[in-house]
Design goal:
Blueprint: H1 2-5, H2 10-15, H3 22-25, H4 27-46, E1 65-66, E2 71-74, H5 76-86, E3 94-96, H6 98-114, H7 116-121, H8 124-143, E4 145-147, H9 149-158, E5 165-167, E6 176-177, H10 181-191, H11 199-210, E7 214-218, H12 220-232, E8 238-241, E9 246-248, H13 256-272, H14 278-302, H15 304-307, H16 310-336, H17 341-344, H18 351-361, H19 364-381, H20 386-404, H21 412-434, H22 441-471, H23 477-482, H24 489-497, H25 499-519, H26 523-532, H27 560-580, H28 585-593, H29 601-610, H30 633-648, H31 656-672
Parallel strand pairs: 4-5
Antiparallel strand pairs: 1-9, 2-8, 3-4, 3-7, 6-7
Helix pairs in contact: 4-14, 4-16, 6-8, 8-10, 8-11, 10-11, 16-18, 18-19, 18-20, 18-22, 19-20, 20-21, 21-22, 24-25, 25-26, 25-30, 26-30, 27-28, 27-29, 30-31
C-alpha cells in the first residue's frame, strides 16, 4: 500500500485492468514495438521535405534568396504572354441573326401565298418540295459563320471544324448588308440534295433570299472556344536560372513566378538527394536511435509502468504514428495540389490531437512530453514556417492538456478544442503583430485554417476515443461517467431488487469520493466503483441487513456456517454479474477486494459459541473472504468506507466524536489484520 501511495501516476494504473496476458508481458513484442517506433522516426526524418523556404504568395520576402542549383522552371508569366500573343490577331466570328432568318422565311412564304400565277403553274408535290427546301435553307443559314481569312486559317491549324465557315468581313457601321455570292453558292450546294429535280424552284428560293439584306451578330461562344483551343496548343514556356542567380530580394513582393522558381528548385534538390547513400542512411538511423533513446530514458524514469506494459507502449506508439501519418499526409496533399494550400495554411495544428488522446488515455504528464517531442520533430520535417509552427502547436497543446485533465463528458471535447484554438489565435496574432501584418488577409487565413484543424481534431478525438478505449481496454473519466447512469441495467436491477443495498452503495461512494479527494486518490473512480461493489447481493438481497424488513431475519433459518456461505457468495456472484455485463476489470477488482481476506465475524462467533469456543472444530476458511487484499489506494478507501457506512447504522448517539472514534477503530482493525499490507 505504501508503494502505491508514493506513485505519482497511480491514477494512470486505474485506467488499465491489472490482468496481463501474453501480449502485455512478452519481451519480444516489446522489442518489436521499439523497432516500429525507431522505423517511424527514421521514415519521417529520412524522407522529409527539402528545406527550401517558399514564402507566401503576395507576402514580403523575409530573406534574400539565390538559386542553389541551375533551375529549369515553367515560366507562367512568359507562357501567359505567348498565349495572349497567339490569339491577338484572331478576328471576330459572325452569324446571321436568328430572328431575321425567321422573318425572311415568313416573307418568302407570304410571297408564295400571294403569287397566284406561280401556284397555278406549280404542281402540289412541287409546292411540298419547296417548303421542304425552305426548311433546309433555314437550317443552312443558321449554320453559316463569317470571319476573316486569317482567323479561318487558324481554325484549320488547330483542327477546329470549319463546316459553314466562309470568308467575309462586314462593313463597319452597317446594321444590315448584302451577303457575298460565296454565301449563296455555299447555300445552293448545301441544300441541293433536298430539291433534286426541282432546280427552278430551288433557284427561286435562293434568289428571293439573296435579294434581301441581312443583320450579322457576334458569335461570342464560338470566339471564346476558338481562343481557348489556340491557347491550349501553345506549350508551356520553360525558363532557366543559373546557380547563384538572385531569385528574390529581401522585402520584395512574392509573385507567382517567384513561387514557381522556388518550388522547381526544391524539386531539383530533392531529385538530386541520394537517399540510399550509406552515409545518409546511417545518419538518419543514428538520429532515430538517439531520439528513441531520449524517449525511452524519460518514460522509464518518470513513467515506468508504461515501459512495463506492452499494451500501454503500443497505445502510445499508435497515437504518435497516427499524428505523424496525418501530418505527412496533409503536407503531401497540400504540396501536390495545384492550388497553393501550403501558402494559405500558415499555422497547421497537428499536435493537439496527440496531446488530447494521450492525456485522456494515459496521463497528463506523458501527454506533455509527447506534445513537446512531436512538435520538435515535426518542426524539422514539415514544410511550414518553423518557429510559428512550433510555438502555435505547443501553446494549443498545453491548453488542451490543461483542460483535458478534467474532461468528464464527450461533448466537452468541443470546449477543449475551442480553448486550444483561442490559444493558437493569441500566438498567431502576436506573430502577425511582430511582422506588421495583423490587418492583412493572411492573418484571417491563418486563424481560419487553425480553426479548421481544431475542428478536424474534434471529429477525430470523438471518433477515436471509444475505439481506443475498447481495443486497449482503457477506462477514462469520460467512460466512467457513463457508468454513473442510473439506467445502467445493473444499477436499475439493484434499485428494484435490493434498494437498501443501492442506498448503501451510494453512501459508500460519497464517503469514498470525499476521502479520496483528501489524499490525492481518484475520487471519481471511488464514487463509480462503489456503486457496483455490492451488485452480488442482487442474487440473495433478503439475506443482507439493509434489505430486510423489521422483525424478519432469514438467517434464523440457517446455521452460522450456511449464513456465512450466503454472505461470502455475494463476491463471486458480483464478479459473475460484472463479467456478464462487461464491466471494466478495475470494477471487478474492487468487488473482489472490498472485503479483503477478513472474516464474517458475526457468523464466525456464532459458530464458535455453538462449538463451545473450540476453534479446532471450526474451518475458518468457510467464514473468510477469498480476497485479495486491496492493491490500490482507491480499493482501500472503498473497503474502509464500506465498513464505516455499515457500522454507522448501529451507532448511537451519532455525532462527530462517535463517528471519529468508530472510524479510527475500523481503520486500526484493518491495519492490525494486515489488510493494507502489500
Amino acid at each position: 500500500m505504501d508503494e502505491i501511495s508514493q506513485d505519482p501516476c497511480h491514477w494512470n494504473e486505474l485506467k488499465f485492468s491489472r490482468e496481463q496476458g501474453f501480449f502485455d508481458r512478452n519481451r519480444v513484442i516489446r522489442s518489436l514495438i521499439g523497432l516500429l517506433f525507431v522505423s517511424a522516426i527514421f521514415a519521417v526524418l529520412h524522407f522529409r521535405e527539402v528545406p527550401v523556404d517558399v514564402p507566401e504568395l503576395n507576402s514580403l520576402a523575409p530573406n534574400y534568396i539565390v538559386a542553389q542549383v541551375d533551375i529549369d522552371f515553367v515560366d507562367d508569366e512568359a507562357t501567359l504572354i505567348l498565349r495572349q500573343e497567339a490569339v491577338r490577331d484572331v478576328g471576330k466570328i459572325y452569324r446571321i441573326s436568328d430572328a431575321q432568318i425567321d422573318k425572311r422565311r415568313f416573307e418568302f412564304e407570304n410571297f408564295l401565298q400571294f403569287n397566284q400565277e406561280w401556284r397555278r403553274e406549280s404542281e402540289a408535290d412541287e409546292i411540298k418540295q419547296l417548303y421542304e427546301m425552305i426548311g433546309a435553307l433555314e437550317k443552312a443559314l443558321l449554320q453559316v459563320r463569317l470571319t476573316d481569312r486569317r482567323t479561318l486559317q487558324k481554325m484549320r491549324e488547330v483542327g477546329a471544324p470549319t463546316v459553314g465557315y466562309l470568308v467575309f468581313t462586314p462593313e463597319r457601321g452597317e446594321e444590315e448588308q448584302d451577303l457575298p455570292d460565296e454565301v449563296w453558292e455555299y447555300l445552293r450546294l448545301a441544300t441541293q440534295e433536298s430539291v433534286v429535280g426541282h432546280a427552278v424552284t430551288h433557284e427561286l428560293a435562293i434568289s428571293f433570299f439573296k435579294d434581301r439584306v441581312w443583320s450579322l451578330v457576334d458569335d461570342i461562344p464560338a470566339q471564346k472556344l476558338l481562343r481557348k483551343q489556340i491557347q491550349a496548343r501553345v506549350p508551356e514556356k520553360m525558363s532557366r536560372l543559373s546557380a547563384g542567380s538572385r531569385i528574390i530580394d529581401q522585402g520584395e513582393r512574392v509573385t507567382a513566378r517567384h513561387v514557381a522558381i522556388l518550388q522547381a528548385m526544391k524539386q531539383i534538390i530533392g531529385d538530386k538527394r541520394n537517399l540510399w547513400h550509406p552515409m545518409t542512411v546511417i545518419g538518419s538511423l543514428m538520429m532515430s536511435l538517439l531520439l528513441t533513446g531520449i524517449c525511452y530514458a524519460f518514460v522509464s524514469i518518470n513513467y515506468p509502468q508504461i515501459i512495463r506494459s506492452n499494451r500501454k507502449l503500443f497505445l502510445l506508439l499508435t497515437i504518435c504514428l497516427l499524428t505523424l501519418i496525418l501530418s505527412k499526409g496533409i503536407e503531401i496533399v497540400m504540396l501536390s495540389s495545384r492550388i497553393s494550400f501550403i501558402d494559405r495554411v500558415g499555422q497547421p495544428l497537428f499536435v493537439p490531437l496527440a496531446a488530447i488522446l494521450t492525456c485522456n488515455l494515459l496521463h497528463a504528464g506523458i501527454a506533455t512530453f509527447v506534445a513537446g517531442f512531436l512538435t520538435v520533430l515535426l518542426t524539422f520535417v514539415i514544410s511550414f514556417d518553423n518557429l510559428p509552427f512550433m510555438v502555435t502547436n505547443l501553446a494549443a497543446s498545453m491548453v488542451a492538456i490543461l483542460n483535458t485533465h478534467s474532461l468528464r463528458q464527450r461533448k466537452e471535447i468541443v470546449s477543449v478544442c475551442t480553448k486550444a484554438w483561442v490559444a493558437a489565435i493569441a500566438v498567431i496574432m502576436s506573430i502577425h503583430m511582430y511582422d506588421n501584418s495583423l490587418f492583412q488577409l493572411v492573418f484571417l487565413g491563418d486563424v481560419v485554417s487553425a480553426g479548421l484543424f481544431m475542428l478536424l481534431t474534434v471529429i477525430l478525438v470523438i471518433g477515436l476515443l471509444p475505439l481506443f478505449e475498447s481495443v486497449f481496454g482503457v477506462m477514462t473519466d469520460v467512460s466512467m461517467m457513463e457508468y454513473l447512469d442510473p439506467n445502467h441495467p445493473l444499477l436499475r436491477r439493484l434499485t428494484i431488487e435490493a434498494p437498501g443495498t443501492y442506498q448503501h452503495s451510494v453512501m459508500v461512494g460519497n464517503l469514498a469520493e470525499a476521502a479520496a479527494s483528501k489524499i490525492g486518490a481518484n475520487g471519481l473512480f471511488c464514487r463509480v466503483a462503489s456503486l457496483y461493489h455490492d451488485i452480488g447481493k442482487i442474487a440473495t438481497p433478503q439475506y443482507f441487513t439493509e434489505n430486510q424488513q423489521p422483525g424478519m431475519n432469514l438467517h434464523q433459518l440457517l446455521t452460522p456456517e450456511e449464513s456465512a456461505q450466503v454472505i461470502l457468495a455475494h463476491i463471486s456472484e458480483g464478479v459473475a454479474l460484472a463479467r456478464k455485463a462487461r464491466l471494466p476489470e478495475q470494477f471487478i477488482d474492487i468487488i473482489k477486494e472490498h472485503h479483503g481476506t477478513t472474516l464474517t465475524y458475526y457468523f464466525y462467533h456464532k459458530q464458535l459459541e455453538k462449538m463451545g469456543e473450540d476453534t479446532s472444530q471450526i474451518d475458518e476458511t468457510k467464514f473468510r473472504y477469498a480476497g485479495p487484499k486491496p492493491r490500490t489506494k482507491e480499493s482501500a478507501i472503498i473497503m474502509i468506507a464500506d465498513s464505516l457506512e455499515a457500522a454507522s447504522r448501529t451507532l448511537d448517539p451519532v455525532n462527530e466524536e462517535t463517528l471519529k472514534e468508530m472510524s479510527d477503530k475500523i481503520i486500526k482493525a484493518k491495519i492490525d489484520l494486515g489488510q493494507f499490507d502489500r
